[in-house]
Design goal:
By secondary structure, the protein is α/β, with parallel strands linked by helices. The chain has 40 helices and ten strands. The longest helix has 19 residues.
Amino acid sequence: MPRPPNIPKRKLPNAQGKGFNLNSIDFLLQQGVLLHQQGKFNEAQVFYEKVLAQQPNHFDVMQLMGSLFAQTSRSTQAIELLDRALEINPHHPECWSNRGNALRELKRYDDALASFDQAIRLKPDFPIAYINRGSVLRELKRYDEALASFDQAIRFQPFSANAHYGRGSTLNDLIRFEEALPSFDQAIRIKPDFVEAYFNRGNALKELKRFAHALVDMDATIRLRPNYIEAYSNRGVILKELNRFEDALLSFDQALLLNPHFAEGHYNRGNVLQELKRFDEAIISFDKTITLIPDYADTYFNRGNAFKGLKNNEQALANYEKAIQLKPHYAEAYFNRGSVLQEQKRFDEALSSYDKAIEIKPDFADVFYNRGAIFQELKRFAEALECYEKALLHKPNYAEAFANLGNTFKQMFRFTEAVESFDKAIALKENFAEAHSNRGLVLQDLMRFDEAQESFHKAIEIEPDYPEAHWNLSLCYLLLGNLKEGFEKYEWRREVKSLSKHAGIRKFPQPLWLGEESLQGKTLLIYAEQGLGDMLQLSRYIPLVAKLGAKVVLEVHAPLAQLFRNLEGISQMTILGAPLPNFDYQCPLMSLPLAFKSDLQTIPPPTQLLYSNSEQLTYWQNKLGKKTKPRVGLVWSGSTTHSNDRYRSIQLLTLLPYLPSDIQYVCLQKEMREVDQSILGQHPEISFFGNEIRDFTDTAALCELMDLVISVDTSVAHLAATMQKMTWVLLPLCPDWRWLLKREDSPWYPSIKIYRQEKMEDWDGVLDKVRFDLEQLAKSKS
């Protein structure tokens, strides 16, 4: 804030008057004061020195020169002169005030305050002393006293722009921005070109997030003082908040043009470049900041964020570590460090980093949220719930925490609570597309399909290109038997990143074929996608493609290669992962139903797998021994990595009581879960061959030797049904789309009979029916 000097006003003698003397002390003094008032400090000093040459102890000149020295940053000399003057006249309030200004320049704030207090004791209605005293109290962070001092100045001089400005600046210090604005307004009314008042009013408006008004004040500041570096910098910060990133960048560039060594400008420029996702350039700006200020923790923190944006996690971690080293209680750095470790699946380290952030900042809601996501991924659902609830305790309007709470409840089969959580998330954030989509999944689990579709449609309305919502809607359509729209929407799976990576969707330069172009004389690559069951189920379309005149190159999973080697319609087969031959068009296997416009009435019959290996059959016949009773193949669990495994798989202990004793049982599973291994060892009546089953040709041979195959929803069910073996499929309440709803048969496989849950996780009801039918089978074969 400007420091008003105390310069006595004097009238010049009339140059034509009687007795005029150019060397008189009075004339020299008046000339010095005039030049001093005009800001011509060097010229004024010459006249003051001429007076002192004639009268070394001239009080007025000593105190005026002291004021001049204080104004020109020669504070030590100023104090020497002012102290000499005060020895002559200790009752001069202006001299004490000017001494206070000089002491303030030397940052001797307590001494300065004592000088201003003395000036006020001598002259209680001295507004300039109150103003400067208030400024020193601000430096000492004694804001309430500073405010009182500025109020006193205004009381004695209501139209002092400096007093109103000082009052507003103090209110800014006290974070009372709304109260500060009228003071800045008054300062500007009194002094329309008051640059600092515009600048600080702009800062107050910025803190109040009234960015458009703040920008007007920063522009006014720059108009009045075109070289005001800090104003360009603050203008850039405001433009960043307004998401006008390119304009913000220009503002920071202007500040740096005025001062290339302006560290704050480089730092803020780096932050804007991050917003523009120009991470390499942001790092350059942060590097320049570090060169100028090597120990500024925030720079390392934001440089870490830029490296994180570049997926350079090791450099990101190194920068967060440096930020923490410089600022040990940097909760945000621990948080971001944890998030990188979380992305790297280094969950124990991530949790440790999050715990440190919480220790520093116990109400850090985002940390609890991220901890919850880790526990959710680790399937430690109770701990995940606890974390999300703590996040909501500290941030009750945290829509994302309610959404993840809903996801966790879904994984715990607590569907009603899941819906309630998604409803709360949506109430807080109406256009929360992900919450709408995930709510639809839970409603589908609850068999409330109309409501589920409404949720998916709402998500798509909010975000038309939201792949997951389209994908989820496609599965709902397919489950309800609406194959036409379902397979059209099913194409969105290629845009679902997690699914695309997991399922094997790929990008090729060759065009995608979906049934429109002629294939006569063309080579079509049909490539492996999703699971082995999908491959078996949709292999029926391959002969249809060949009949269109195409040369079919089929890519298959290795375990299916031998099984598919004689499949009708294949010109060339390659194993997934091997180099591909040349081709004209490509189509993922799961897009073939769309290409052939399949509906429930036009699903082609299963292709007969031309599996025949007499040696293999003989080998397995000998392993099984002489058949004396019905043989039933069993598959009670699938892969633990399947997203729906908890719904579809059964434990052996649950199944055993429902297996009649007068049947020979053969486990067709290659792998056995640890929970089932010890149980199986106690039941020799169930044959288990484990690693002796090398690939699907062995499984096919075993299926061939069975009277019946009973399976949960796994690839073995598809294999047996494709081989036209009598197959019973055991399904959860809400099954995979291909099994449809409310029917015991399947339009995909004539030999299948379906046993469905009638209540969530109620396998007993399903297995009761299985036992009854097995008993009937045993009787019929006896």
